[in-house]
Amino acid sequence: MRTAIATVCLSGSLTEKLTAAARAGFDGVEIFENDLLASPLTPEEIRARCADLGLTIDLYQPMRDLEALPEDEFARALRRARHKFELMRRLGADTVLVCSSVHPLAVDDDALAAEQLARLAGLAHEHGIRVAYEALAWGRHVSTYDHAWRIVEAADHPALGTCLDSFHILSRGSDPKGIEDIPGEKIFFLQLADAPRLAMDVLQWSRHYRCFPGQGGFDVAGLVRHVLATGYTGPLSLEVFNDVFRQADPGPTAVDGRRSLLVLQEQTGAATPPEPVVPTGIAFAELVTPDPAPLAAVLGALGFTRTARHRGKPVDLWEQGDARILVNTGPAARRDGTRLAAIGLQSPDPAGAARRAEALLAPVLPRRRAPEDAPLDAVAAPDGTELFFCGGRTPRQPDWRADFTDLAPSAPDTGTGRIDHLALTQPWHHFDEAALFHRAVLGLNAQESVDLADPYGLLRSRAVANADGSVRLALTVGAAPGDATVHARHIALACDDVVAAARRFRAAGGRLLPVPANYHDDLAARFDLPEEELAAYRELGILYDRDPDGGEFRHCYTRTTGHVFFELVQRDGGYQGYGAANAPVRLAAQHTAGDLTGG
């Protein structure tokens, strides 16, 4: 199906918005009136610019307060409409969005509304324009799609149809099944937006918190199935009002929006991209660093051994059991300091995983490799993290470890020999995009988003994982641009006994994050834990959580090296979370220790 995006979804000038939409692969755009009014280009120049970019202008919007008015007010509205229709002729747009009235003089009279909309449609028809009437969720008298359709049906004019908007329909809890009663040819336009479920005024909800399909809590795919069942043949178009999008780079936002429509088409059966290939494990985590000595000390204290070195690159392999860390001291490390830069994902079909990623607009990364190196496919996540799809040890799927020359045997598994999860802090404007990317591209399941209290703001976190938990990624973002915590990422190592692992780490010279005594005093009040166990937790800075089903989570943290720290975790009784209840204490402790300064 054709796809379109409203210019209001993107930041920047109208020219920048059009360029971003075209580069992302959209077929058309909705021109938002404010963008046109603020543009130095004439309507003819905007029309030419869109044509040069391969974009059609599918909708001009919005026109407001045009129906169920006293006659003198309606006469003024028609005069305004006549000017807009002439502008649209110059612009090359043939469909206009008319929102249900919020005018204080509008009356609750469907017959009058139908009669005036028919007159408006007659004027539009003279200019070769169609009118798409939409029910605003906060409309004065018309606020539901079925009510709007009854008025359109009563008006009975060929140039008058309805516009369906997923936000206006789903935010009011309307049943979208009734859409199938509308003839497809009378659905002139379909606008799509998702949103988190919030208890707030619907106008403020709409103006600030919409997001792309698949990023919120609405069943947008279900609504689209009902629309397609009518025979609708118009575009799938995004109309999203979002404060973050209005501040972010329009290029990535446009790509994110088009990805959301590709996924939506897959969910509704309108398109069939390559099947998702769900990763089966973490093959490696790659750290880049300009100075490997501090990182080597931490890894050694954690029980890792430097086992191999890449044949042609400054990359060392550190192993313990099934946990593998690559330490890269190449040019990128000198630019950005010590950080978690790449993840190797074990995949049953690396080539299929790469095809899926590319089809959903993930940038394919060029890779400098010698002829004998394993042909690893790699793509970039929205935050720039490199994702490598790693195969097994077959001729068709050569093992990436064959690129390394052995230096020493792998350290035996001392109870911390597996990566439990990776925590990836996101740029402030990429959180929703990251969650959709990891679900859609990698086929991971997403948990509900949670809020975490940091001493200097509120963080949002959302975990994605495969079915058996062998791949877990925790995505976290700060609420404000420039929040220092966005620089810190961490690797969590699974332990059989976190107390023993923490003691081994400390005995080997490792530094654990100290936790305030007040936390453990409160822990004693909340849980009936043996005093000996509590004493160990106080000594080692171990945090504790228990879920409603009795699952337990014990975890502690190392001090930060550059922009990276480690977590030791012990899961018992089927615990599936990440200790979110303890996050405020951990974040405060890291700020106190100077570990979250952004340096």
Characterise this structure.
The protein is built from 18 helices and 25 strands. Strands 17, 18, 19, 20, 21, 22, 23, 24 and 25 form a 9-stranded mixed beta sheet that branches. The radius of gyration is 28 Å and the shape is elongated. It has 599 residues and is an alpha/beta fold.
Distance between the termini: 47 Å
What's the Cα radius of gyration?
Answer: 28 Å
Helical fraction equals: 25-40%
> What is the mean pLDDT?
93
Low confidence ranges: none
Give the tally of β-strands: 25
Helix-strand layout with pairing:
Layout: E1 3-6, H1 14-24, E2 28-32, H2 33-37, H3 43-53, E3 56-63, H4 71-91, E4 95-99, H5 110-126, E5 130-134, H6 145-155, E6 160-165, H7 166-170, E7 187-192, H8 202-209, H9 220-229, E8 236-238, H10 250-268, E9 281-288, H11 292-301, E10 305-310, E11 315-320, E12 323-328, H12 331-336, E13 339-346, H13 350-359, E14 377-380, E15 386-390, E16 404-406, E17 418-426, H14 431-440, E18 445-446, E19 450-454, E20 457-465, E21 472-478, E22 489-494, H15 498-507, H16 517-526, H17 531-540, E23 543-546, E24 552-557, E25 564-572, H18 583-593
Parallel strand pairs: 1-2, 1-8, 2-3, 3-4, 4-5, 5-6, 6-7, 7-8, 9-12, 13-15, 17-21, 22-25
Antiparallel strand pairs: 9-13, 10-11, 10-16, 11-12, 14-15, 17-22, 18-20, 19-20, 20-21, 23-24, 24-25
Features:
599 residues; alpha/beta; 9-stranded mixed beta sheet; 8-stranded parallel barrel; 18 helices; 25 strands
Task: Quickly describe the structure.
The protein is of the alpha/beta class. α1 packs across α10 (250-268).
